Amino acid sequence: MAKREYLGNFELVVMLALIRLDEKAYGVPIAREIKARTGQRVSLGSIYATLERLEANGLVSSKLGEPTPERGGRAKKYFRISGIGLRNVRATQHMLIEAWRGLTELETYAHKANMLSSNRKSTFRTRSIHGC
Predict the structure, then answer these.
(1) What does the pLDDT read at residue 129?
(2) How many structural domains does the chain have?
(3) pTM of the full predicted structure?
(4) How confident is the model at residue 117 (pLDDT cuts 50, 70, 90)?
């Protein structure tokens, strides 16, 4: 069975966190990076399950750091994106750009949504000011 070239949403977000964190990429900083970039909290279990799957597919590699007293003598497992992983990130980026290209309907919908949101806020402000 051929390996897929494109990454799923969560896989892509994890891979982007690895790229940003470089040599400091292990569970907790990855979770923090994802939260900072997406606003979504993710469990360490889902991060590690994804990393294990990515590693099994050759998209990331891991190494154990030195044991630390803060972790009860356990070592941190650091992850790094591989060359194949980086190619998959780029392929996914290009595929998404192409998929979005020319969808002017989305721009229209986004503009309408912003207009509705602005109208609701101004209506709310008006009602709040006038006590209605």
Answers:
(1) 43
(2) 2
(3) 0.74
(4) low
